[in-house]
Design a protein that fits this description.
This protein is α/β, with parallel strands linked by helices. The chain contains 16 helices and 7 strands. The strands form 2 sheets. The protein has a 5-stranded parallel β-sheet, sandwiched between helices. Helix 1 (12-23) crosses helix 2, helix 8 crosses helix 9 and helix 10 (236-249) crosses helix 11 (254-264). Bound molecules: adenosine-5'-triphosphate and magnesium ion (MG).
């Protein structure tokens, strides 16, 4: 029966070291960083949650994707539930594959004064449980001015209950996390230590192809599977998707399946869609960034853009395109004037486009 197949690869060492850091009091809070689709939500739900319960924690989880505009009501829902059930939470956030996260509805009626409601409800929790672990997923969605009072409220709860409450944040935008935790004026300034989630390795690939073997009765060559996983920039979601496509198509050669998958997958379609929407100047800026990694505003770059466009390109014109690319989360800025791709896959895609000479079409 395929339903008993364990696709999840447990990251027990990672979970254990995070819990140890928190439970021994070395840290009150930790922020797990990894780009999108690298397995943060699976780690917190599948590995950290059960282990933390065994350690005696009362565990609470919420994902701010549930309602990006009203994170305080997401938080309130979380602390109002008498006891969250893991299976229910997984269904709500849509594991595996988290596309439903963004569409899910809040559980309860919105409150007129959610922050004072939070303070009241949190007091009840504190009186009931000796140790509480809050797991707050997708915290970068809070990095906006309008959420500053809510963030200050979280900080106050953390400060007031330093011994009793520990927090695991997760985030997928370096820029968002810098805004939240590294700016002096930010209410969460230095509130959490950042932990960069390491890439999954060959044992993950081995685990996944054994699951595939159980599901299909077919074997996949391990060395070839590892080569593909590296080419996918170690993104577990894309590797899993590829295996599912092989289950459906019956293809047994993973490298062949990968070349078909790259052409047709939703991900490639998403990159093509995003690329098609961009202006010629935005595309050139991306190509420059993919090839050089820096110097977007240097004389040499501006001159190149002007030559390619056939008109003088000003820094203002360029800045406007960069702002749009940032708004669309294609790139992010970690320090002034420095930009990087939010997804390695998009960077690879842009490199391919420039090699194909599609740059200024
Ligand atoms: N430990 C794992 N074992 C097996 N598959 C995994 C594991 N971690 C992640 N995956 C695969 O990757 C997919 C994405 O994982 P997950 O939703 O946890 O990523 P994420 O980092 O939370 O992404 P996002 O930032 O978009 O929320 C999962 O649905 C699953 O297919
Ligand atoms: Mg997630």
């Amino acid at each position: 029966m395929t339903s008993n197949i364990q696709w999840h690869y447990p990251r027990l060492d990672t979970a254990e070291s995070i819990i140890r850091l928190l439970s021994t009091g070395a840290l009150q809070a930790i922020t797990i960083f990894a780009p999108r689709n690298y397995g943060k939500t699976e780690l917190v739900l599948e590995d950290i949650w059960p282990m933390a319960e065994q350690e005696g924690y009362f565990v609470l989880y919420s994902s701010f994707w549930l309602n990006k505009a009203k994170p305080e009501s997401v938080f309130l829902d979380m602390i109002r539930e008498p006891k969250q059930r893991l299976d229910f939470v997984k269904t709500r956030v849509g594991l595996p594959g988290n596309f439903v996260e963004a569409q899910a509805q809040p559980l309860s009626e919105p409150s007129d004064n959610p922050l004072s409601e939070i303070a009241k409800e949190f007091k009840k929790l504190i009186n009931k449980h000796d140790r509480i672990l809050l797991m707050l997923d997708e915290v970068q969605t809070l990095a906006k001015d309008e959420h500053v009072d809510f963030i200050a409220c979280i900080r106050t709860l953390m400060n007031t209950h330093r011994e009793q409450v520990q927090v695991v944040f997760t985030g997928s935008s370096r820029e968002g996390l810098i805004k939240l935790f590294k700016k002096h004026k930010a209410p969460l300034f230095n509130a959490a230590h950042q932990y960069d989630l390491p890439n999954l390795d060959a044992s993950f690939v081995q685990h996944q192809i054994s699951a595939f073997q159980q599901a299909s009765g077919r074997n996949i060559n391990l060395a070839a599977a590892i080569r593909v996983f590296v080419r996918q920039n170690f993104v577990p979601a894309h590797f899993h998707d590829l295996l599912i496509s092989m289950l459906i198509s019956g293809e047994g050669d993973i490298e062949k399946a990968y070349s078909v998958y790259r052409e047709n997958s939703m991900l490639s379609q998403a990159y093509i869609g995003a690329w098609t929407e961009l202006s010629a100047l935005a595309r050139m800026a991306l190509v420059w960034l993919a090839n050089h990694g820096e110097g977007l505003y240097q004389e040499q770059a501006i001159q190149y853009f002007s030559e390619q466009m056939g008109i003088p390109v000003t820094t203002g014109m360029l800045q406007h395109q960069i702002d749009l690319l940032k708004e669309n989360s294609i790139i992010e800025s970690l320090s002034r004037g420095q930009y990087s791709f939010t997804e390695e896959g998009m960077r690879d895609f842009v490199l391919e486009q420039s090699q194909d000479g599609l740059l200024v079409k």
